[in-house]
Amino acid sequence: MTAERGGADLHTHTTASDGTVTPRERIRMAREAELEFVGITDHDTLAGLPAAREAAREAGVVLVPGVELSTDVDLGSRRVGVHILGYWVDEAAEPLVQLLARRRASREQRLARMLQRLAEAGIVLDEERIRAMAQGGAIGRPHVARALVEAGVVATVAEAFERYLTPGKPGYVPRAPLAPEEAIAAIRAAGGVPVLAHPGLLPSRLQGLWPAWKRMGLAGVEVYHSKHSPGQAADFLARARELDLVPTGGSDCHGPQPGQPALMGRVRVPREWVERLAARAADPEHTL
């Protein structure tokens, strides 16, 4: 769903994880795109939210605070990554704080293994340079991909993923396991609202798990996304209504970065959807 102004982009990233702009810059971009609401949903961290909150107050943009947890589903022949967004969590909830700390520690271990595998393939990257790119944020494959571009190994981030950082490729290392059910439970226990991110990037057979995830506490589904086709969005909206899941949407903007079009403002969902999502957070029966 798109519009010229207003509305909400509920899925963006900053340098607190694998985005290329700071939380303050992301808020500025939201204001320039004339968004009313912007969600900041960095991977495995809430560290960008204080700065984003202050910048949003100054800019007159409403921040929807969030986090994105990377989980996996075992399909037998392969593991499929499933991302769960959590909005309005209690940022001081100790179980969630500890879970996020463990996830970030596993990212550090994964980085070491990726660099080792790439070195074995004859590609030696500067770990300190990768850490400088991450600016203290949660390190992930996009940082390694950008380092591969900078080193001249590949031309684009997309090529880096395709040639080196996806399953079966020389630099790929699977992430530490976390089930979607665990992520949903952790978000709910912290008073947050769990939402399934970009289902259009997942095998369609996983839609069969939506009812079970709903019973576990899944509250919404990201119907609109920068990589969803209109047909996918229509199907997801119908399915969300069928299961009484709140429809949401976001650009999943990580940039700007070379080779990627500007995404802020390309995906907007109405205020009503944000209010419905917020109502789930305010419902005392929602949390565990």
Automatic annotation (TrEMBL):
GO terms for molecular function: 5'-3' DNA exonuclease activity; 5'-3' RNA exonuclease activity. Residues 8-73 form the Polymerase/histidinol phosphatase N-terminal domain. Gene3D superfamilies: 1.10.150.650, Metal-dependent hydrolases. Transmembrane segments: none annotated. Signal peptide: none annotated. InterPro entries: PHP_dom, PHP_domain, Pol/His_phosphatase_N, Pol/histidinol_Pase-like. Pfam families: PHP (PF02811). Residues 1-23 are annotated as: Disordered. Residues 1-12 have a biased composition (Basic and acidic residues). This is Metal-dependent phosphoesterase, PHP family. It comes from Thermaerobacter subterraneus DSM 13965.
